[in-house]
Amino acid sequence: MEFIAQNMAPIMFTSLILFMLIGYPVAFSLAANGLMFFFIGVLLTPYSGGAINLAWPLLYALPDNFYGSRVMSNDTLLAIPFFTFMGIVLERSGMAEDLLDTIGQLFGPIRGGLAYAVIFVGALLAATTGVVAASVIAMGLISLPIMLRYGYDRRLASGVIAASGTLAQIIPPSLVLIVLADQLGRSVGDMYAGALIPGLVLTGLYALYILIVSIFRPKMMPALPLEARTLGHGVISLLVALAAAVAISYAAYSYLAPTHGDGADILGACVGVILIYVVAIADRRLNINMMSRLAQQVVIVLIPPLALIFLVLGTIFLGIATPTEGGAMGAVGALAMAAAKGRLSLDVIKQALASTTRLSSFVLFILIGARVFSLTFYGVNGQIWVEHLLTSLPGGEVGFLIGVNILVFFLAFFLDFFELAFIIVPLLAPAADKLGIDLIWFGVLLGVNMQTSFMHPPFGFALFYLRSVAARVPYLDRITGRQIAPVTTGQIYWGAVPFVLIQVVMIGLTIAFPQMVMRYKGTAIDPGTIDYKVPEVPGLSPLGAPQDGGAPANGGSAPAAPGTPDLSQPPSFGDAPPAKPATPAPDLSQPPSFN
Q1: CB under 8 Å to 588, separation ≥6 — which residues?
Q2: CA separation (Å) from 411 to 202, 451, 558?
Q3: Which among 150, 175, 388, 546 could disulfide-bond with 558, CB atoms 3.0 to 4.6 Å apart, if both were Cys?
Q4: What does the DSSP 8-state code read for residue 546?
């Protein structure tokens, strides 16, 4: 009994893992473990030697945990339903279809162009939707048949679609970054700023992999045939349009800089982008044909989602809006974009609200279960056990980061990113903080690592999403009339493996180059450049000399200016104290005497 009582924390943690491996829902596994071990812990308290601090009145803390700032009154978690609603409405609005078609035409002439288009659109969808399921399903429905039609390798096509969809995990406004910021007790805005560069670097690594494969295995990703490029040529026209937008933006910046200061660059960029967008629409509607069809389509399709990204992330990074307010503005912007495309209907809103409610309830129940579990786990000093276990790893800070990331990597085979964030992160954060690790850096590392949970065979959710929309039986292509072979589950799994390895490389790069994340702190201030100014005392010059320039007679002090309090005497609260005799000025021409 004493052995069980003094080792309650590891037994409790192992029991939780077994519950979830059996297949019980995570929220109920957490709550059931918490309550069961609370009962056992109270009974074993006399045998624990002070290792267990549980008593029945402690259960009264649960209602406060549920309705307090940790769950129901947590303003940070309000951003989750807003961003979820925004992503689902955008997915229903057809934005992904327009982006994939347009960017595919733009990159079509080069080998692997469709794969580059999928990566680029995946990054854009990640920055607008923040929902992995919406990105993977949309790209799987639209891009996979096109890639198979023109001879792309099935494993490569499946892997690039699944991996690009998971960029919504790390590129803001990611839902997992919101949860990580909440669990680590840090600002969501700082977490977004810290994750931006690693997310873009990971996107670049995906593109680099496609480039390498296109060089050494060109038959795996042929260029788009000429007859499939329906928008024709027009890259030069697009470059001219971009150059004109840059020139207009710079001119607007130069005009606004004297009056708007630091905000002039953003306002100038807005002027240039809006003007080129209006010109592209007018050029198409009035058949002026000043721009090529390709340039028109790229400008008209790309600018609205980019504007939405600025509306959400730009306002957060500039400090104009909180993440919750940014999510609300994004939801309104998504509704406006869907209405502009004529795809906003009552059914779309109902579907978006139902999906948002389902996901938000899922997160809420896991969080409530986690609060029950943590109440008991902390009562048996579980946090001390985890802290001692992790801080004793060899290698110090680097050894801790490597060990934790290996642990999270293997747990991601079985657990969803929400489950990892609510169960594992609260246990790891105190140890990381004790080692002096920046928690934003730590959170971004975990975010990149948890991204692999969507790609792990055989339980990766992104693989399941793609499996649900990929062809299971042979079918006739509606364009070419040829029979297309189906995509097997094994091809989807093997296609994901190279991208999982790329994500592991990205974890190593984030550990090796923390400045990618630390830039969220801004530019460091050099103390040597600080200008100290001492305020002037009334009646005295900056160096304490009399303002009238006259030296005081006989070494005495100068008369005080009218209205200036005499600070050489203590304050009087009644009868005035007798005046102190004036202290004679020391004679500095002689050495001091100590007699």
Answers
A1: none
A2: 22, 12, 78
A3: 546
A4: B
